[in-house]
Amino acid sequence: MNTIVVGQLQRQFQDYIVSLYQQGYLDNQFTELRKLQDEGSPDFVAEVVSLFFDDCAKLINDMSTSLERPDHVDFKQVDSGVHQLKGSSSSVGARRVKSVCIAFKECCDVQNREGCLRCLQQVDYEYKMLKTKLQDLFNLEQQILQAGGTIPQVSMN
Amino acid sequence: MTREELPNLAESKLTALVVDDNFVNQSIHQKLLARLGITNEVVCNGKEAVDAHCSGRNYDLILMDMDMPIMNGIQATKRLREMGIESKIAGVTTRANEGEKKEFMEAGLNDFQEKPLTISKLLSILHKFDFYVQT
Fold first, then answer.
1. Could you report the per-residue pLDDT of B3-18, keeping only the tens digit for each?
2. What pLDDT score was predicted for residue B45?
3. Is A71 exposed, middle or buried (0-12, 13-18, 19+ CB in 10 A)?
4. How far apart are the C-alpha atoms of B71 and B130, rounded to whole Å?
5. What distance in Å separates the CA atoms of residue A65 and residue A73, rounded to the nearest whole number?
6. Residue B96 clears pLDDT 70, i.e. is over it
7. Chain A interface includes B53 (CB < 8 A)
8. At the N or C end, where does chain A have fewer CB atoms within 10 A?
9. pLDDT over 90, % of chain A
10. pTM for the structure as a whole
């Protein structure tokens, strides 16, 4: 094990994950999720966020369909989708996605189709951005492990 | 609480049922329970929870989501209580306005926690039900 390389990678990992919290991509629930990962389930976080991103894609697609026709918007369906998305984003600590969902719900409540469409576009952007960021994070984890190191526990307190 | 400080309740042989239609929440809730040594199963809606009990299965603890298709958490909780099921049922939902919480509690819950569920919240539920005594 090259301890210098491992040390550099670990510092890179720490800096990167801290930046994700500071930029609002993640909140404390992601920390809770990381605590659940162990030797028995070393890919737990990656697996759960993968489920989340699949959820995002499906729900966004469904909501897009519901919002398609200006004269026939099913706001109840859209509201249901937003509720689901808010729930799962909250569960994985996807803070920006959750924030957009809160605004999205307000647009649904007043049946503002244009507002809903803007929120839909934004939530699509945010989840894809988070997906890219977390993939980079998981790649860093893999590099650390392959170099013989351990993944640092990062406290955000 | 560090991993080393987490209680292991495996000796208690507790069993739990996760009732939630969302795969993300299912994974997280199952993992939380497993981390504390609690054997658990998962179903996707209230009807499947009722069916599981009709088939003779029983659980010490049920983590019940509120919004689910086919049969929601309120309906499922009422039905389970009508069937005489005395398991501890904890409602776990993102819907937290007082009216919705009241309706869910009145359906027959023993406890209510707002999502997202964490180790601390789960321990709070277990402590309330005397499944876990803090030393």
1. 556 788 888 899 999 9
2. 97
3. exposed
4. 29
5. 9
6. no
7. no
8. C
9. 88
10. 0.91
- B8 residue type, one letter: N
Among A44, A47, A90, whose Cβ lies nearest the Cβ of B116? A90
β B111-114/B88-93 pair status: parallel
Contacting residues for B77 by C-beta, under 8 A, at least 6 apart: B46, B64, B89, B91, B104, B107, B108, B109
Looking at the complex, report in whole angstroms how far the Cα of residue A90 sits from the nearest Cα belonging to chain B: 6
Q: How many CA atoms lie within 13 A of A62 on its CB side?
A: 17
Distance CA B72, CA B66 (A): 6
Distances in Å between the alpha carbon of A26 and those of A94, B10, B80, B91?
5, 32, 38, 26
The owner of tokens 């509201």 is A79
Span B40-58, pLDDT tens digits: 999 999 999 999 999 999 9
pLDDT at B1: 56
Under 8 Å between Cβ of A32 and B118: yes
Which residue of chain B is at minimal alpha-carbon distance from A52? B24
Check CB contact under 8 Å for A32 and B119: yes
Residues B3, A38: C-beta atoms closer than 8 Å? yes
Q: Do B116 and A91 touch (CB under 8 A)?
A: yes
B64 - beta bridge partners?
B19, B91
Contact B115/A90, CB-based, under 8 Å? yes
Please state, in angstroms and as integers, the Cα–Cα distance from residue B3 to each residue in A59, B26, B130, following that order.
34, 21, 22
